Amino acid sequence: MAEVASVAPTKAAPAPVKAVKAGKKTATKHKKAEPSVSDFIVKAVSASKERSGVSLATLKKALAAGSYDVEKNNCCINTAVKSLVSKETLLQTKGLGASGSFKLNKKVAEAKDKAAKKTAPKPKKPAVKKAAPKKAPAKKPTTKKAATKSLKKAKKPAAKKAATKSPRK
């Protein structure tokens, strides 16, 4: 134990702990190409023609039929249903929370369809570019006197334009 106490830490020891390996890259999250759970739920509810809405159990059966792992993602389904109800995309006809029956809110669905139609990009025709005629470079006056004369000439027509305005009656 005396040996441990006699060894003093050096300043170089903490440096390797702080250093990050050059070969490692930070993990980046990529968005999945498949649609989210809420998209699946909205499609399943819109496909249903029940007047009173779709129960949660029926909704989960529809998702399982659409090759979605319901048992593994049960919590995700419940939170997605709750968020869709809070966003008023779904209307809850019976029950509280994630339980009960749900149907699609027609007002929100129509508003989203109209917004999607307005924001849809229209195909643009490529603009035909015409070659602009090349202008000859303007000649600069050689002396200062000539430059001041040209400025005075340019100011005179502007003054005449202001004088020609008719007074208000």
TrEMBL record:
Positions with biased composition (Basic residues): 21-31, 117-169
Top-rank lineage group of the source organism: Eukaryota
Residues in coiled coil: none
SMART domains xref list: H15 (SM00526)
Keyword entries, A-Z: Chromosome, DNA-binding, Nucleus
Main subcellular location: nucleus
PROSITE patterns in the record: H15
Region feature Disordered, mapped onto this chain: 1-31, 112-169
Keyword DNA-binding belongs to the record: yes
Family recorded in the similarity comment: Belongs to the histone H1/H5 family.
Protein known as: H1 protein
